[in-house]
Design a protein that fits this description.
Elements: H1 2-18, H2 22-33, H3 38-44, H4 54-90, H5 109-121, E1 127-128, E2 134-136, H6 137-140, E3 165-167, H7 172-181, E4 186-195, E5 207-217, H8 222-237, E6 243-250, E7 253-262, E8 279-288, H9 290-295, E9 304-311, H10 312-320, H11 333-336
Parallel strand pairs: 1-4
Antiparallel strand pairs: 2-3, 4-5, 5-9, 6-7, 7-8, 8-9
Helix pairs in contact: 1-4, 2-4, 5-10
């Protein structure tokens, strides 16, 4: 029995010296000390020994098991340390090497201009409101003084989803919703996407952006409208900017005007950009039609108001001298990186 134990010990220690991987070590452990290993088989064979020899043999087997298990654990720790050091060498980083610059994004030019507009109107007491892009015919047309047979509907080629649902053609619908749910005084701007079935070219798109404004209170006049838009133009384009109001027509305002500003390229002298006029049109505006106020539950004999609609895309292209509106929607990184 002693010879067998010595043989197992020597074979195990020799094999242990040659082990190079953890799977090989685990296989050796199972072979020697596992449930069906060599030492376990010796213990099972003790039944054939005389009763007086069994305790001595059992003690010898257990002592050898403890010795071999300690040797296996030491080998396992040595292998783990070896693999750790090897991995550290393979994954070592030279902290003195210059790092790779991380590219950062930036705001889209439309968002830059929109934030500027919001920052102009917020100090004037305006709130920012939003509305659904899928609107009903009532909020998009009828409540804005455009009944079913109104010829002005032809001015807006509309994307209809059903007879009563459509993609909004103007953010004015959000103004109607606001007037229905708030009591005057009301001061709001409504930024958002709008949709019209226009042909795509350098100045038109079926998807574009508006920022519409609304003020309703007692004693509101055209002087208030002009004062707000004068201040807006000066803050957006510079203190030397002048505005000009031209008569126009919108079904939901009366009187209605188109608003021009002095050309930023030539300062009003006339150039290629303004086609020699010295002026550039930027928005439409007017006094809220009494019928619109009345339809929203606001007494037009007690309250009055003004509204204006700014084409965000036009403001952006004129500010940054972008020659083609389509550049705003094509997601060309070469174009967008200029606005970081």
């Amino acid at each position: 029995m002693q010879e067998k134990l010595n043989s197992i010990k020597n074979e195990t220690l020799n094999a242990l010296a040659l082990v190079e991987t953890l799977p090989e070590l685990e296989a050796l452990r199972v072979k020697v000390t596992g449930k069906k290993g060599q030492l376990t088989e010796l213990l099972h064979a003790m039944g054939s020994l005389p009763a007086e020899e069994r305790p001595k043999v059992g003690q010898m087997v257990n002592l050898l098991r403890n010795e071999l298990e300690q040797a296996i654990e030491q080998k396992e720790a040595a292998l783990a340390e070896h693999f750790k050091q090897q991995r550290l060498l393979e994954e070592a980083l030279d902290v003195t090497i210059p790092g790779t610059a991380v590219k950062t994004g930036g705001l889209h030019p439309l968002n830059i201009v929109l934030e500027d507009l919001i920052n102009i109107f917020l100090p004037m007491g305006f709130d920012v409101v939003d509305g659904p892009e899928i609107e009903t015919d009532y909020y998009n047309f009828q409540a804005l003084n455009l009944p079913q047979d109104h010829p002005a509907r032809d001015m807006q080629d509309t994307f209809y989803i059903s007879k009563n649902l459509l993609l909004r053609t103007q953010t004015s619908a959000a103004q109607i919703r606001t007037m229905e749910n708030r009591k005057p005084p009301i001061r709001i701007i409504c930024p958002g996407r709008v949709f019209r079935a226009d042909e795509v070219d350098a100045t038109h798109s079926p998807v574009f952006h508006q920022v519409e404004g609304l003020v309703v209170d007692k004693g509101i006049t055209m002087c208030d409208l002009k004062g707000v838009l004068d201040e807006f133009a000066k803050q957006l384009y510079g203190p030397e900017t002048q505005t000009k109001f031209r008569p126009s027509f919108f079904p939901f305002t009366e009187p209605s005007v188109e608003v021009d500003v002095t050309c930023g390229e030539c300062g009003g002298k006339g150039c290629r950009v303004c086609k020699g006029t010295g002026w550039i049109e930027i928005l439409g505006a007017g006094m809220v039609h009494p019928s619109v106020l009345k339809g929203c539950g606001i007494d037009p004999t007690e309250y009055s108001g003004f509204a204006f609609g700014i084409g965000l895309d036009r403001i952006t292209t004129t500010r940054y001298k972008i020659p083609d509106m389509r550049l705003l929607f094509e997601n060309d990184l070469r174009f967008l990186e200029q606005f970081k």
